[in-house]
Write a structure and sequence with these properties.
By secondary structure, the protein is mainly α. It contains 14 helices and no strands. Helix 2 runs antiparallel to helix 3, helix 5 runs antiparallel to helix 9 and helix 5 runs parallel beside helix 10. The relative contact order is 0.13.
Length: 381
């Protein structure tokens, strides 16, 4: 029975209406243009350097290092510095691992190389998710580490491993430096000077986080490989992207929003790639799209994918050009495969928790407390 004064549980119709409103509305704005400009600048400067030196094939190394700037938005300067250094080191290691896998893959058959990339990517997804949770990094999850490892590993080797490390590290260091200027430029919100209490997680919770991300990534990757589509790591990314949302309902909703937003983002990409472009024009589009993505990603995830999707695809085109039609088709299909896999893992975790609660009910008088995904805490997606 509901407790006196408690809200009644929303009906399925109300939940559907709420999800529709979140899909079609923008959340409140802050000073989004300041972190968006900082993050876009952290990507623009390395890409400009590569363009001027004729080394755009290294664009993925620089781009994934530049994702360092996405971490620790609106946080106090000292805290942002520590967390961005941590995130930058993590992303640099992921780029380096991807470059090493690409080199190793040259001596392996295509199927073995694909399975190796899938397995390593799944392990990295689990380790990164647990590490990000333990360190309190924001945004949570493991999308960027997995993307860095898998995308670099799946492309032909563009440089020696040490070059990949140096370019990613240099790009990450630049973003850390720009992050120090964020507070001076006005990147703050009313609570920015108040340090929230640090969350602590048990080994069991961290292990559960690892398991959820590794399982979702592995399942999606296997389905992606079985589909015969060319980029199974896109399915892996789509599967884990929804796991960082709080609670089962929002996880499922984010998976659905990702499919809708990706489909619309592919239309944007098709337009941008529908006419011949010089490399410098693609660089301009990548930087503009990065700015727009960061302007809206905290306000409406599906809408932000209008910019995130072409951003990711244009970065691939800069470093390793692909036929446009198959590229766009694969993006939509593999995103759908990954979303289904991720939602399946979420629902399976919820059923496991419910079953465990029912088994414990006789010992607790039927009042077993929800944990993990049902309570919105990490640990059982």
């Amino acid at each position: 029975m509901p407790q006196p004064g408690s809200r009644p549980a929303p009906t399925p119709r109300q939940r559907l209406q709420d999800s529709g409103r979140r899909l079609l509305s923008l959340g409140p704005s802050r000073v989004d243009h300041i972190p968006a400009l900082r993050i876009a600048l952290g990507l623009a400067l390395p890409l400009l350097a590569l363009l001027l030196t004729g080394r755009l094939e290294w664009a993925m190394f620089a781009g994934f290092g530049a994702f360092t700037g996405i971490y620790s938005r609106y946080e106090p300067t000292r805290l942002r510095f520590r967390r961005q250094v941590t995130a930058g080191a993590m992303l640099t290691l992921c780029v380096t691992a991807g470059a090493a896998l690409a080199r190793l893959g040259e001596s392996l058959s295509a199927p073995v190389e694909s399975w190796m990339t899938l397995l390593v990517g799944s392990v990295v997804a689990g380790l990164a998710a647990a590490f990000v949770l333990a360190r309190g990094l924001k945004p949570g999850g493991a999308v960027f580490p997995l993307f860095a490892v898998a995308a670099v590993a799946s492309a032909p080797p563009a440089a020696p491993v040490w070059v990949a490390f140096a370019v990613a590290a240099g790009s990450a260091s630049l973003c850390v430096g720009l992050g120090l200027l964020g507070h001076w430029a006005g990147e703050r919100h009313p609570g920015a000077d108040v340090r929230a209490a640090a969350e602590t997680w048990t080994r069991g919770q961290l292990a559960a986080e690892f398991g959820a991300f590794a399982l979702a990534s592995g399942l999606a990757g296997v389905l992606g490989l079985a589909s015969g589509l060319p980029f199974p790591y896109w399915a892996q990314i789509a599967a884990i992207a929804l796991l960082s949302a709080p609670g089962r309902t929002l996880k499922v909703e984010r998976g659905l929003h990702r499919v809708v937003g990706t489909a619309l983002g592919v239309v944007t990409t098709a337009f941008l790639l529908s006419f011949p472009s010089e490399p410098w024009q693609l660089v301009v589009w990548v930087v503009v799209l990065q700015f727009l993505a960061e302007m809206y990603v905290l306000r409406n995830y599906a809408f932000a994918l209008l910019f995130i999707t072409p951003l990711a695809l244009l970065m691939v085109q800069l470093a390793h050009p692909q036929p446009v039609g198959p590229l766009l088709e694969a993006r939509v299909l593999e995103t759908a495969i990954g979303a289904v896999a991720g939602i399946a893992v979420v629902l399976a975790g919820a059923l496991r928790i419910r079953w465990a609660a029912r088994r414990a009910a006789p010992d607790t008088g039927g009042s077993a407390e929800p944990t993990g995904a049902e309570s919105g805490r990490p640990g059982a997606s």
